[in-house]
C-alpha cells in the first residue's frame, strides 16, 4: 500500500473520494473507470501544489483525485497542523448543482461532533488566482481502512468483529440523532488510525449524507440511486427511499463480512447483486462458520431483514442490541436461545425469493422482468457505468416506466401465436415496425389474398362502439370518484398547538389523532411538527390525520457516575443518549482503583444527544517513595514527610558519640513505598553523654587518675609551673564542675 506524507493511506483517499463524470443526458454524477485510472495522486504540474488557500492553508502533495474534486495534504499555517483539503475542480464551481452538493457535504459532516466521525474543520471559496476555488478542510488521519483489516483478519471471532463495528454504529447513531443518514456505509469508508495516533476508528465520507425529513427521504433526486451496491438495502433498489434503517442494513452486511470474510450477495454485475438484495435474505454467518453463536446470527438477521419494519429503527437501537450481544460474548455463552429469539425478526420477510408478494406495509417489489431486460442493455444506455467491482459506489438511473397500454410480456419458450388483424394491416404494422421492415429474427411474412363478398351491414359494430363508450365513461367516472372526489386535501397545521390543529382538521371534515411525539430543535414543545398525510396530501373524507407534536429540545442530563466502573459508566451514558468521550486516570485516596472520580462536564449538566462526556477514573492510592534519613537532621526529615502527608513519630532519643544531637540515629521503615497517612518512626540522637568533672585538686596523682578513669575519662598528666616533685594534683583541664562528653581527655597538672 502506498502511503502519502505523514502516513495517510493514499489507497484510503482513493476509496472515499467519489469519482464522477457528467452524464450528458441528464447532468447526473455516475461512476467512471476513466476517472479512476486518472486518479493517481501527485500528478506532475498540478497548479494547486504550493498555493496558499484563504491565506491559511498551504497545499502540499495530492493524495487522491476524482471527477468532482481532488484531495491534498496541507498545512494549516494559522494553527500549525496537518490537514486534508478537498478542492473542487476548476469550472465545477460554476455549476450550481455541483457547488451546492460540495457545500452540503461540508455542512452535513460539520454538524457531527463525534469522536468516531472524521471531522470537518472549514469550508471556503478562494479567489486569489482570479477564479473560484471551492474547498473543504478535513481532519487528516494517518491509518488504514476496515477493508484492509478484513483482508488480513477475516473471518474473525465475533468479539473482534463487534469491537470493530461498535464505533461505526456509534458514529451512525450520532448522525441519525442529528437527522442525517450516511447512505454509503462500507468498509472503505471506515478509517482506523495507526497506533501512534491512538488507533481510533472513524467513519468518513458523509458526502452522500442527506437530512431526513418528510419531503426528502429519497437517496437522490431526479431518479438517480446512489450507493455501493454490495451494501444497498432492498428498499433503495425498489423505490429509492432511504432512512436510518438503510444504514442499519449496510452495517449488518459489514458485520456479516467481518464474521465470514465474504459478502453475503455476489454477482457478475452490480445489477445482479442488487437483484439478490431484493429477493434473497442475507445468510446466517453460522452457515459458513458453525462456531458462531445463535444470538450473533440473530443480530445479523435483525439488522439485514429485507422488511425494513423488522430492522432496528436507527443505529441507536442497533447499538443497544450490539451491546447485549457483546455482553453475552463476554460471559462466554455458546448459545442464548432467549436472546436469539428476542433479536430475530418477528415476522417473515415482506417478500420471499422471486415469487412471494410484498406485504401491505412494504413498497412494490422490484420488477424481475424489467431487471432481466435491463441486464441485456448496454450499460452506457442504462445509465450504469460498471468497472466490474460491486463494491464501487454506483449510480443507477431510474428511467420512467414505459406505458403499459398494448404491452405484453411473452415468455421466450412460448409458441408463436396467430392473432386476428383487421383487413389491410400487415404484420409489420402490428408489431410497431416500419412498413416493409421484417421483425427481428423472422423472415418476411407473405400475406395471402383474401376473397371478399358483399354482405349486409350489421348492427353489432355500432352497438359494440356504444358499449365501449359506456364502459370507458363508467371507468372514467369510477376513476374520478375513487381516485379524486372522495379524497380531501390535508390542510397545513404545522406550528399550531394540538387544539388549533384539531379544530382546523375538523373544519376540513377530518379527524385528528395524536401520534408519537418527537423532539425538535426549532419547534416549541406542544406544537405540530409533522402530519401524516403531510400538508397537501390526500386523505379520505372523514379520515384521520396523525399529528406529531414537538417535545421541544432534546436534552439529557449527565448522570451521576461517581463510584461506577468504566463499563458501567459507558452503559449509563448510552442509556441517556450521551456518548463516551475519553477516560483519564487520577490518584485518589478515597475512590477505589478503576472507579469514576468525576465526569467532564460534571453531573447534572444538560447536553444535546450524542454529546461526549469524559471520565476521570481512579488509579487508587498514590504510592509514596521514602528515603533514608539516617545521619540527617530530624527536623528536615519531619518537615519533608509531613509535607507529603505522612505521619512522623519519635520512637526514642539516645546518646550517640557519632551522631550529632538532633540528627537521626535510625528510622523505620528505612526505604520502600508508603501511602498517605502511613507512619515513619525515628530514633533521634541526644548527642554524646556529658559527665561533670569532679574535684581532684590536692589529690594524689594515682587517686585522681583512678577517679577520672572510673567516670569514663582519659587521663593525661603534666608538670605545673613551679613543680616540686610532690606528686599531688595542682589543677585539671577541663576544670572542676565542667560537663564534658564521656570519654573526653582530662589533663592533670602536678606540683
TrEMBL record:
Residues 57-323 form the Protein kinase domain. Signal peptide: none annotated. It comes from the Bacteria. Residues 484-551, 552-619, 620-686, 687-751 form the PASTA domain. Its EC number is 2.7.11.1. The chain crosses the membrane at residues 463-484. Keywords: ATP-binding, Kinase, Membrane, Nucleotide-binding, Serine/threonine-protein kinase, Transferase, Transmembrane, Transmembrane helix. GO terms for molecular function: protein serine/threonine kinase activity. Residues 404-423 have a biased composition (Low complexity). Residues 21-45, 377-449 are annotated as: Disordered. InterPro entries: Kinase-like_dom_sf, PASTA_dom, Prot_kinase_dom, Ser/Thr_kinase_AS. Pfam families: PASTA (PF03793), Pkinase (PF00069). PANTHER family: MITOGEN-ACTIVATED PROTEIN KINASE KINASE KINASE 20-RELATED, SERINE_THREONINE-PROTEIN KINASE YBDM-RELATED. This is non-specific serine/threonine protein kinase. It comes from Nocardioides alpinus.
Amino acid at each position: 500500500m502506498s502511503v502519502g506524507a505523514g502516513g495517510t493511506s493514499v489507497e484510503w483517499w482513493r476509496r472515499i473520494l467519489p469519482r464522477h463524470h457528467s452524464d450528458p443526458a441528464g447532468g447526473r454524477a455516475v461512476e467512471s473507470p476513466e476517472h479512476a485510472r486518472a486518479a493517481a495522486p501527485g500528478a506532475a504540474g498540478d497548479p494547486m501544489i504550493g498555493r496558499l488557500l484563504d491565506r491559511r492553508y498551504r497545499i502540499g502533495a495530492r493524495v487522491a483525485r476524482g471527477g468532482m474534486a481532488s484531495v491534498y495534504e496541507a498545512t494549516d499555517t494559522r494553527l500549525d497542523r496537518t490537514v486534508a483539503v478537498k478542492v473542487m475542480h476548476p469550472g465545477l464551481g460554476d455549476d450550481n448543482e455541483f457547488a451546492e452538493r460540495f457545500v452540503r457535504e461540508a455542512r452535513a459532516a460539520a454538524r457531527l461532533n463525534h469522536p468516531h466521525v472524521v471531522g470537518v474543520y472549514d469550508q471556503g471559496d478562494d479567489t486569489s488566482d482570479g477564479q473560484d476555488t471551492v474547498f473543504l478542510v478535513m481532519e487528516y488521519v494517518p491509518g488504514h481502512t476496515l477493508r484492509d483489516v478484513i483482508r488480513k483478519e477475516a473471518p474473525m471471532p465475533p468479539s473482534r468483529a463487534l469491537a470493530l463495528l461498535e464505533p461505526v454504529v456509534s458514529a451512525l447513531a450520532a448522525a441519525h440523532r442529528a437527522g442525517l443518514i450516511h447512505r454509503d456505509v462500507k468498509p472503505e469508508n471506515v478509517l482506523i488510525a495507526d497506533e501512534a495516533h491512538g488507533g481510533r476508528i472513524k467513519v468518513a465520507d458523509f458526502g452522500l449524507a442527506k437530512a431526513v425529513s418528510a419531503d426528502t427521504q429519497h437517496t437522490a433526486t431526479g431518479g438517480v440511486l446512489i450507493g455501493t451496491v454490495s451494501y444497498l438495502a432492498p428498499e433503495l433498489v425498489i423505490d429509492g427511499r432511504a432512512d436510518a434503517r438503510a444504514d442499519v442494513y449496510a452495517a449488518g452486511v459489514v458485520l456479516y463480512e467481518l464474521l465470514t470474510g465474504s459478502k453475503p450477495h455476489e454477482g457478475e454485475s452490480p445489477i445482479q447483486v442488487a437483484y439478490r438484495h431484493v429477493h434473497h435474505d442475507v445468510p446466517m454467518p453460522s452457515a459458513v462458520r458453525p462456531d458462531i453463536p445463535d444470538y450473533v446470527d440473530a443480530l445479523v438477521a435483525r439488522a439485514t431483514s429485507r422488511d425494513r419494519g423488522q430492522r432496528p429503527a436507527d443505529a441507536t437501537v442497533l447499538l443497544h442490541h450490539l451491546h447485549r450481544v457483546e455482553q453475552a460474548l463476554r460471559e462466554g455463552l455458546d448459545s442464548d436461545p432467549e436472546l436469539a429469539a428476542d433479536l430475530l425478526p418477528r415476522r417473515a420477510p415482506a417478500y420471499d425469493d422471486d415469487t412471494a408478494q410484498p406485504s401491505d406495509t412494504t413498497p412494490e417489489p422490484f420488477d424481475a422482468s424489467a431487471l432481466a431486460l435491463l441486464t441485456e442493455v448496454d450499460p452506457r444506455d442504462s445509465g450504469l457505468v460498471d468497472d466490474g467491482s460491486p463494491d464501487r459506489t454506483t449510480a443507477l438511473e431510474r428511467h420512467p416506466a414505459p406505458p403499459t397500454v398494448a404491452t405484453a410480456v411473452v415468455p421466450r419458450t412460448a409458441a408463436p401465436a396467430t392473432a386476428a388483424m383487421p383487413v389491410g394491416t400487415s404484420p409489420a404494422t402490428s408489431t410497431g415496425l416500419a412498413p416493409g421492415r421484417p421483425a427481428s429474427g423472422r423472415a418476411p411474412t407473405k400475406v395471402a389474398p383474401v376473397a371478399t363478398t358483399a354482405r349486409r351491414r350489421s348492427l353489432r359494430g355500432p352497438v359494440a362502439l356504444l358499449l365501449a363508450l359506456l364502459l370507458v365513461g363508467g371507468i372514467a367516472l369510477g376513476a374520478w370518484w375513487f381516485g379524486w372526489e372522495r379524497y380531501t386535501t390535508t390542510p397545513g397545521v404545522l406550528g399550531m398547538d394540538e387544539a388549533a390543529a384539531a379544530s382546523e382538521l375538523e373544519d376540513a371534515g377530518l379527524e385528528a389523532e395524536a401520534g408519537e411525539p418527537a423532539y425538535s430543535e426549532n419547534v416549541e414543545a406542544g406544537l405540530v411538527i409533522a402530519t401524516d398525510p403531510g400538508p397537501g396530501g390526500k386523505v379520505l373524507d372523514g379520515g384521520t390525520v396523525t399529528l406529531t407534536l414537538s417535545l421541544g429540545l432534546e436534552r439529557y442530563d449527565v448522570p451521576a457516575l461517581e463510584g461506577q466502573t468504566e463499563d458501567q459508566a459507558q452503559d449509563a451514558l448510552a442509556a441517556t443518549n450521551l456518548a463516551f468521550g475519553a477516560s483519564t486516570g487520577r490518584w485518589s485516596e478515597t475512590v477505589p482503583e478503576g472507579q469514576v472520580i468525576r465526569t467532564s462536564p460534571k453531573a447534572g449538566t444538560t447536553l444535546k444527544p450524542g454529546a461526549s462526556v469524559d471520565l476521570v477514573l481512579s488509579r487508587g492510592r498514590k504510592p509514596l517513595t521514602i528515603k533514608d534519613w539516617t545521619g540527617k537532621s530530624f527536623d528536615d526529615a519531619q518537615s519533608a514527610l509531613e509535607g507529603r502527608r505522612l505521619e512522623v513519630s519519635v520512637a526514642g532519643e539516645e546518646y550517640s558519640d557519632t551522631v550529632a544531637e538532633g540528627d537521626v540515629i535510625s528510622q523505620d521503615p528505612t526505604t520502600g513505598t508508603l501511602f498517605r497517612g502511613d507512619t515513619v518512626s525515628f530514633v533521634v540522637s541526644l548527642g554524646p553523654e556529658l559527665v561533670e568533672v569532679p574535684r581532684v585538686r590536692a589529690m594524689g596523682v594515682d587517686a585522681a587518675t583512678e577517679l577520672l578513669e572510673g567516670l569514663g575519662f582519659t587521663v593525661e598528666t603534666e608538670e605545673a609551673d613551679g613543680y616540686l616533685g610532690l606528686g599531688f594534683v595542682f589543677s585539671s583541664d577541663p576544670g572542676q564542675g565542667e560537663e564534658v562528653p564521656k570519654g573526653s581527655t582530662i589533663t592533670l597538672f602536678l606540683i
